[in-house]
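Researcher: For the annotation table, I need structure tokens for At1g61320/AtMIF1 LRR domain-containing protein. Please keep the output clean. Sequence:
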Amino acid sequence: MEKKVEEAELNFLNATPQFEISPEFFNIESLKIVKLYFCVVDLPPLLKGSAFLKTLVLKKSVIVTPTFINTIFKHCMLLEYLDITQSRGLNELKILAENLKKFKVLKIGDCPNLVEIEIVSLTLRSFHYCGNLIGDQSLELLPAEGCVVQYLA
């Protein structure tokens, strides 16, 4: 915190048990880019220091819940890029980003329990989804003008 770190990439591939990120981690005001791999994140309900967060990457075993997503989009008003990959805890994804003026890129990949995606964003320009549709589901997107949509099943 004292060093005013702007970018943090934490990979705990071989940690047993899974490494837990302290809720205080997201209160580091200088962080602009956060990349977390193979860890458990417990967000506090109020993120004091994440106002300047621009990029968030959550991969492999980071448990992403609807509450987690709501907290991120409520407090990280400068968020531009979100990447969620291989999160088994994600079953529905509702992104309500109508208040975010800079949110441009969303990547969702290989989340096997994901059954529903709802995105409300006026600024989203690129949406990448890699995964399977479950049952009789279909993927319906109404992208904003100029938005690039990539779907890989």
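Researcher: And a one-line annotation?
Model: The chain is about 5% helix and 35% strand.
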